[in-house]
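Table S2 (text version). Query chain:
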Amino acid sequence: MPDERPGIVLDDQKNLPFEVLGTAECEWCDKAQQLIAQQGMTSKKMIIGQDMTMLEFTLATEGATTVPQVFRRGELIGGYEALVRYFERYKTFGDMDV
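Corresponding structure-token output:
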């Protein structure tokens, strides 16, 4: 069955929220959200034990054992350092899909 979604990328899609998975008292989760905001984008924090179970976290993050774990458009970026590298690539290539 062919994909029937429109092929046009709307400006809104460039600002789709990031999801920051972590714990309620997570300094690096807060730093990840601050970094995302500095790039002019939005994020939503998902708290383990409140918004998702530990099993859901483990399955979603392919077994990650540290927080935060950051997603964009459903794809795992990784932890805080991976998020920094993600934005560095964006600055280099000018495309959030790199």
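Notes on Table S2: Residues 80-93 form the longest helix (14 residues). DSSP finds three helices and four strands in the chain.
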